[in-house]
Design a protein that fits this description.
0% strand, 7 helices, 64% helix, mainly alpha
């Protein structure tokens, strides 16, 4: 596995179960992404700061790989950031539910890392508001090709929104610090 490859959702699920965490692979990846996008650190004990139910849990190799790959993807200038979501063979319901869980994880951890008044651009504030709407959404049963296309568009929006917020907070903060 290269530094930019996310672990398989099944491997992340196994780690979650082994550590007794109350989350899903999608929600955890959203949280890791939100934490990093908001400027959260990667020091030992990052999992405990990220998840309230993991205060004493140390990330295993799979979760360390998830964090490292996510950090590398967020920093990748070719915009190679990917969301950890179920494969295309999962139902539309399962994939949309996972996307909404990803957004909930992202928002919670982003807020923890970025604080009350992150320096967001107008586009960043709008993207954060849209992610909040998605986090509050509920998946619907059924669906057709139009719904499949809509989900693909929403996934792409979420991916780009995470990169935008990372640019505003984490990269922007580093840039401001380098100027001082």
């Amino acid at each position: 596995m290269t530094d930019e490859s996310l672990p398989a959702p099944e491997a992340v699920e196994d780690s979650i179960r082994r550590l007794g965490l109350a989350t899903t692979p999608a929600e955890l990846h959203g949280a890791v992404s939100g934490w990093l996008a908001g400027g959260g650190d990667q020091a030992p004990g990052w999992l405990g700061r990220l998840l309230a139910d993991a205060e004493s849990a140390e990330a295993d190799d799979t979760l360390q790989a998830l964090r490292a790959a996510t950090a590398a993807q967020l920093e990748d200038r070719s915009f190679g950031f990917a969301l950890l979501l179920p494969d295309a063979d999962a139902t539309l319901y399962q994939r949309s539910a996972a996307l909404f869980e990803w957004c909930r994880g992202f928002l919670g951890a982003f807020g923890l890392a970025a604080g009350e008044a992150p320096g967001l651009s107008e586009e960043g504030r709008e993207a954060l508001g849209d992610l909040a709407k998605l986090a509050a959404a509920a998946p619907q049963d059924g669906g057709d090709d139009e719904d499949e296309n809509a989900l693909a568009e929403i996934e792409e929006f979420v991916r780009v929104a995470a990169l935008l917020l990372h640019g505003d907070c984490a990269l922007g903060r580093r840039h401001r610090q380098s100027l001082n």
